[in-house]
Amino acid sequence: MSTVVAQKPKGSLQGARLPKWFPYALAGGSVALGIGISLAAGLDSNIQWGLIAAILFVVGTYVIATRVEGKRQAKDRIATSLVWVAFLLAVVPLVSLVWTTVARGVKVLDGYFLSHSMGVVADSEPGGGIYHAIIGSLEQVGLATAMGAPIGVLTAIYLVEYGRGKLAKAVTFFVDVMTGIPSIVAGLFILSIMLQFEMQPFGFAGSLALAILMMPVVVRSTEEMLKLVPNELREASLALGIPKWRTILKVVLPTAIGGITTGIMLAVARIAGETAPVLLLVFGNPFINNNPFEGAQASLPLYIYQQYSGGTDASYDRAWAASLTLIAFVMILNLGARGIARWKAPKTGR
Amino acid sequence: MAKRIDVSGLSAYYGSFRAIEDISMTVEPRSVTAFIGPSGCGKSTFLRTLNRMHEVTPGGRVDGKVMLDDENLYGAGVDPVAVRREVGMVFQRPNPFPTMSVYDNVAAGLRLNGSYKKSELSDVVEKSLKGANLWNEVKDRLNKPGSGLSGGQQQRLCIARAIAVEPKVLLMDEPCSALDPISTLAIEDLIGELKERFTIVIVTHNMQQAARVSDKTAFFNLAAVGQPGKLIEIDDTERIFSNPSVQATEDYISGRFG
Predict the structure, then answer these.
(1) Are B202 and B33 in contact (CB under 8 A)?
(2) Does the pLDDT at position A349 exceed 70?
(3) Residues of B in contact with A244 (CB under 8 A)
């Protein structure tokens, strides 16, 4: 300890500082040590040595920083290192998921796969494709969005701009309840109606269930975005003698449109991956069915589920390729939403 | 086409709280009337009752009469939207519409009311921007976003936006409090020009500003926090600042407040 004190510079505002490369060196050291300990102890899991390295890193940061820099800086450093460890813990599974999907999905993903159905291919044989599932997904999700997004946005407008008193409270409450509805329950709800009318599975029934799942998400996100619009803008517009509905349409919505679009896209991404209601209501179909209002259809998540249950190498490959397609689909939607958000966002440049 | 405002027995509420009590005054056409008084005395609330913006606040409610020439703004069947076309307003913080260009901001009132001829729109925009002494600064960037202007320019843009719909009365709620002295001077000069065409009511915390720009000054005060604000007196600005008839006014103006 005395040597550390001796290193302290004279000025009262200056304290001993660890060098800039210290965190990197410590991180490298912790990883090396983590692997070493794991090898010595005969642990063969990546997760185990990763966790050992993380603990070594955090504890090491605290101990060394306390000795050299003092308590306060040590707390600062431990907070920083905890944030980094948490970041890695969150990112590693994500990267691993994307990596696995890409690595296993590219095997059979090609133009043929995207443009052919499973109509004449048995699940156990190689070949076939996901064209019918893409058509089904696009139609079901598209119809669900066409129903869910406007209703959700309008509900949010009601809640933020008009809603007062009991009705608004009730709507907010039910939106909260709906957010928590498991997707299978939404599917069962529509199924019970279908059974009443003795209907066979068809795409639009799935859209209805997906719209139910989508609406609360859209309401919530749109509500938050509308609340962010400064009240001063509404007042400025009203004070010009502009009626309230035009104020909302021409001033409030354009100001919030970027965020609202992002919210809708996230909701779309969520329902695009739903399997349970589709399984109940759309049933699945190896043939191409372009009509969502009649007959069973396929959809990407359902296709993945069915192919994975197929149990052969060929069907596993198709399941992974379809997963990759689904992820790409959602990713493209998100990028599109970001593009729209950036394009529409209030401009501040000169 | 400025109009006279005649207020009698006006009280305004936020829910059950009475913010201002029993105010009566007359504002002459083509004049500038300044409202002064301590914070929370109800100047802004009173100003907002003059174009029915007060009721936009949840729980906002008004009793009494506001005559605009010979029409009661609070009469049965009066459309607040129509009132606000007659009585324009400029706010404390500049609030141009962030999604719109300079041009669209000024045109917003006409466009969104739907009451304009396409051929006239650009003339109105130019005239309004000239009226707000902003034309020379923005004529080359009419299509740039309004929020890219400086604070003082933004406030003049808001004034241009307000006068573009040709109101009869222009209400200004501390229009210079967020601005530097030079922008403030520009707006004060502008107020002097605008009073040829409009009846102007301005709320200000700046006593010198009230003395500089207004013809009449009204002093508001409240007995204590939680009590409603009241109009103490309204008189010619010169008289208010030299020889007010109420002691409280003199105390406030000379800084011996409380």
Answers:
(1) yes
(2) no
(3) 81
State chain A's mean pLDDT as an integer.
89
CA distance, residue A153 to nearest chain B CA (Å):
19
- A166 and A60 in a single domain? The answer is no
Final residue of a domain: which of A74, A104, A134?
A104
Q: Residue A217: is its pLDDT beyond 90?
A: yes
pLDDT band, very low/low/confident/very high, at A10 (cuts 50, 70, 90): low
In a domain, A350, yes or no: no
pLDDT of A2 reads: 43
Alpha-carbon distance values, B105 to A90, A256, B128, B200 (Å):
45, 17, 11, 22
pLDDT of A5: 46
Nearest to B144 among A235, A251, A350 (CB): A350
**Least confident stretch, A15-19, A291-295, B62-66:** A15-19
- Nearest residue of A to residue B138 by CA position? A350
| Residue at A79 is within a domain | yes
The whole domain housing A322 covers: 115-344
Q: What confidence tier does B257 reach under pLDDT thresholds 50, 70, 90?
A: low
Q: Point out which residues pair with B10 in neighbouring strands.
A: B23
pLDDT tens-digit series, residues A235-252 = 999 999 999 999 999 999
Task: Write A41-50 long-range contacts (CB < 8 A, 24+).
Answer: A50/A92
Question: Rg for chain B (alpha carbons), in Å?
Answer: 18
Q: Domain containing A194 — which CATH number? A: 1.10.3720.10
> Which B-chain residues 113-172 have CB contacts (< 8 A) with chain A?
113, 141, 144-145, 147-148, 158, 161-162, 165, 167
Which residue of chain A comes nearest to B166, CA vs CA? A240
Number of Cβ atoms within 10 Å of the Cβ of B193? 12
What is the DSSP code string of A94-146?
Answer: HHHHHHHHHHHHTTT-SHHHHH--STTS-TTSS---SHHHHHHHHHHHHHHHH
Q: Directed axis angle between helix B151-164 and helix A231-239, to 10°? A: 40
Q: How far is CA A51 from CA A47, A75, B98, in A?
A: 6, 21, 48
**Count of structural domains, chain A:** 2
Contact state of A349 with B148 under an 8 Å Cβ cutoff: yes
Which of A289, A305, A279 has the alpha carbon at shortest distance from A186?
Answer: A279
Distance from CA of B8 to the nearest CA of A (A): 23
Window 60-79 of B, Cβ < 8 Å to A: none
- Overall pTM surpassing 0.90 (yes/no): no
Which residues face B61 on adjacent strands?
B13
pLDDT, mean of residues A60-64: 90
Residues A44 and A182 occupy one common structural domain: no
Mean pLDDT of B101-122: 86
- Which of A104, A123, A148 is a domain's end point? A104
Residue A1 per-residue DSSP state? -
Indicate the CATH number for domain B5-93+169-253. 3.40.50.300
Interchain contact, B99 vs A255, CB within 8 Å: yes
Predicted pLDDT of residue A350: 45
Report the 10 Å Cβ neighbour count for A79: 11
Nearest-Cα distance to chain B for A230, in Å, is 9
